[in-house]
Design brief:
Blueprint (H helix, E strand, L loop, with lengths): L10 H13 L18 H13 L3 H14 L5 H21 L4 H12 L6 H17 L6 H14 L7 H18 L3 H14 L6 H15 L29
Length: 248
C-alpha cells in the first residue's frame, strides 16, 4: 500500500513498525544531535511528532523525536524507533529525488538503517545517488569512465539532480572527441549518438555527421579489380610434335 499511496492513513507507520521489528536484533543505539530544547511533556512531544509525520514535515518530526528521546529514552521505544525510521527514510528520499541533496539524502538513509533495513524503493534511490556521485567524480578527469557511469544513471534516473542527462551527454561528447583524435571514428560516432540521444545539442550534429562519414570511409572495401582479356581471346597454345624413333 505504501508503494501505491504513501499518504494512505497509517501506511507509513505500519511499514516502519514492521521494518523495525525485522531489524530489532541488530539495531545499534544512535547518537543524535540535540535540537533546541522542547519543554513539553513526552506525551505531547509524541503527539507533535505524529502530527509532523502526517503532514510529511520530516525535519520537524526528527527534531521532536530527538527531544522526546532525550527526556525519556524508554517511552514507547518501539513506536518511536519506527517513527525515527519513517522520518529519516522519507527525508532521505525527498532530499535525493526532489532537492538534489545527494550526500545529505544518503546520510539520512544511513541513519534510518540504524533502526531497520531500508525498503527496496529507498535503497534504489540511495544506490542511484551513489552512482551519480561516482560518475560525477570522473567529470573532466576521465571522460570514458564518466560516460560509462552516467550511462547507468541515465538509464534509471535521467533527471536526478536535474542534470544527469546533461552530464551524460557532455561526457559522451567529450569522450567522442578523444576517440576522433585517437583515430577511432566509429567509436566516436557511437558516443556522439549517445550524447544526442540524451540531449539534442544542435552544435554537435555536424561533428557527429563527420564522424559517421569517416567511419564509413574507414570500413569501405573497394571491389576487386578484374584483369582485362586481350581482344580475340586468349591465344591457342601450339603443340610441339614429338620425334618418332624408327623401329628396330
Amino acid at each position: 500500500m505504501i508503494r501505491l499511496d504513501p499518504t494512505y492513513p497509517g501506511a507509513p507507520e505500519r511499514l516502519a513498525e514492521a521494518l523495525v521489528a525485522l531489524g530489532a536484533g541488530t539495531a545499534t543505539p544512535m547518537a543524535l544531535a540535540t535540537p533546541t530544547p522542547n519543554l513539553a511533556p513526552v506525551e505531547e512531544l509524541f503527539s507533535q511528532a505524529l502530527a509532523a509525520l502526517e503532514r510529511q514535515d520530516w525535519t520537524t518530526a526528527i527534531d521532536t523525536l530527538i527531544g522526546l528521546r532525550a527526556k525519556d529514552g524508554a517511552f514507547r521505544a518501539v513506536e518511536v524507533d519506527g517513527m525515527f525510521y519513517n522520518a529519516f527514510r522519507n527525508r532521505g528520499v525527498q532530499r535525493i529525488s526532489e532537492q538534489g541533496l545527494l550526500e545529505e539524502g544518503i546520510y539520512d538513509m544511513s541513519r534510518a538503517e540504524r533502526f531497520a533495513p531500508l525498503d527496496r524503493d529507498a535503497g534504489n534511490w540511495r544506490s542511484w545517488a551513489e552512482l551519480y556521485l561516482q560518475a560525477d567524480s570522473y567529470m573532466g578527469l576521465n571522460w570514458a569512465k564518466a560516460a560509462q557511469y552516467f550511462a547507468e544513471v541515465f538509464a534509471v534516473a535521467p533527471y536526478l539532480r536535474n542534470d544527469a542527462y546533461v552530464k551524460y551527454a557532455t561526457a559522451s561528447q567529450e569522450y567522442g572527441e578523444e576517440l576522433i583524435a585517437a583515430g577511432d571514428p566509429c567509436g566516436a560516432e557511437a558516443q556522439f549518438e549517445q550524447s544526442l540521444a540524451a540531449w539534442l545539442n544542435e552544435t554537435l550534429v555536424p561533428t557527429a555527421t563527420e564522424a559517421w562519414v569517416l567511419c564509413e570511409q574507414s570500413q569501405y572495401v573497394p571491389p576487386p579489380t578484374e584483369t582485362p582479356t586481350p581482344e580475340g581471346g586468349a591465344p591457342t597454345p601450339t603443340e610441339t610434335p614429338t620425334e618418332t624413333q624408327p623401329s628396330g
